[in-house]
Specification:
about 0% strand, mainly alpha
């Protein structure tokens, strides 16, 4: 094994250890997370139909964006520019084991999300002030998936295959889970990252949309209910950027982990 190869492998292991620490903090937060008392009280008083209505709205939003919204989202995604930038960074990382270039890849992914964060903030607060809750869900999911797509591109992954969309749905569900659900769903995501995303039948895909929608509806129930009320709805809409940051923190970590795992695998297999 050449000295340069050893250097590259050592760099990858170092970056993975840093990710492990970040993931441990996410796990700790998920396991210790408790809803605010006022939120618990409201959840107890809300009729079941509010939850089922919200869950249905999230299901429809995911289905709509995945099936018909891709072309619309891609208008705001600099796909070729991002992929070209990734190829250059990836070449430098492969040749020199450059942590600087690897960090630049992560910074570029984070920078892309600043615009999306601003958009979802304006949409959430604006519609909340008008007491518009459910219609905002499609806009929120659209902006969120745009952020996920851009993150995937920054690490060199396509986002438009059924297999990748399954992985994305699983990541989104895990990002909002708590306690044992987080551990179970996080492990399922890691298994896909390790072996590669796999295609799914229509039935399996629809079932995953339902599971992800349920996770979103359960966590955002009260806030989206509040957003549908005039005047005070702005408080619910203001939660959009909070959720966007939380979800994207998990998604960006996973795409980086996936890239590093595959980089390490190629190094170990090459002569």
């Amino acid at each position: 094994m050449t000295l340069q190869k050893k250097k590259r492998i050592a760099m990858i292991h170092k970056e993975l250890r840093l990710l492990e620490k970040k993931e441990a903090r996410l796990k700790k937060a998920a396991l210790e997370r408790k809803s605010a008392r006022w939120k618990q009280l409201m959840e107890e008083k809300l009729p079941d139909k509010v939850y089922t209505g919200l869950e249905s709205a999230f299901c429809k939003a995911f289905s709509l964006v995945f099936r018909k919204g891709r072309a619309l989202l891609e208008k705001g995604v600099r796909k070729e520019t991002i992929l070209t930038d990734h190829r250059v960074s990836h070449y430098v990382v492969q040749q020199k084991g450059s942590r600087r270039e690897l960090r630049r890849m992560g910074k570029n992914a984070g920078r892309s999300n600043l615009n999306n964060l601003a958009i979802t903030t304006v949409e959430g607060i604006g519609l909340g002030a008008l007491g518009i809750g459910l219609p905002d869900i499609v806009l929120f999911i659209g902006t969120l998936l745009k952020g996920v797509y851009e993150t995937a591109l920054h690490y060199g992954y396509a986002y438009d295959t059924r297999a990748e969309q399954m992985l994305i749905l699983k990541m989104l569900a895990a990002s909002l889970s708590g306690a044992e659900d987080w551990e179970r769903r996080n492990e399922a995501v890691d298994r896909l990252l390790a072996r590669g995303a796999v295609p799914a039948t229509d039935e399996v895909f629809e079932a995953q949309i339902q599971k992800t929608a349920s996770a979103f509806a359960l966590d955002m129930l009260v806030l989206k209910f509040i957003q549908g009320l005039p005047v005070v709805g702005v408080l619910g809409g203001a939660a959009n950027p909070v959720y966007y940051r939380k979800i994207m923190r998990y998604v960006q970590l996973k795409y980086r982990k996936r890239y590093l795992w595959q980089l390490l695998k190629r190094e170990q297999q090459s002569k």
